[in-house]
Amino acid sequence: MNLGMDCAFLLDDAPERPLVARQSRKPRITTFFHRSRISNLNDLTGLLSTIPHEGTVKSLTGWLQLPKGRAASSHFERLRDVILQSDVMVTDTYHVAVNAVRDGVPTICIGNYCESQRDTLDDFKKKILFRDLGLSDCYFEIQDSQLSTDQVKDIGNKISCINQIEFKQAMRERVDALREQFHQNLEGLFAD
User: Per the structure, how many domains does the chain have?
Assistant: First the structure.
């Protein structure tokens, strides 16, 4: 079993997103920042606002305010609809990244430098997830909760690369292959 393969990838309700080139070639960007406490987040959001994009850069709101009971499912589906309408997700939150990648939305993830996972909220698991998905170049590790000037520029450049059909197809194929391998590993464990 691959370290970093989240069980959310086992869910079979991910809609098949068509891989189409949008006429404007301008990405619809969605962001959610909450976990890494990026001290110079304004540098990144300022850059994102200068990238030619469709509409506005949306912020995914309400991710960590999941209501209790039956309302939780409809709340999650509303948030997922926002993700599904995005061409690119930029986040520092593990489960936002997992759900975006699982649903075929190219994702840039940011996390604080960690050498190992010490508790459930450490950023090391994001690094391992992106490595295992073959998306290490979409993971930006920061020092002292701060993006370097070069990292901010690299994120801007990466957005135009990952909004290409070829990248989206390759990402989908990698995720599907890993999901299939994960299913087979689980089936093998419980076959006896």
Answer: 1
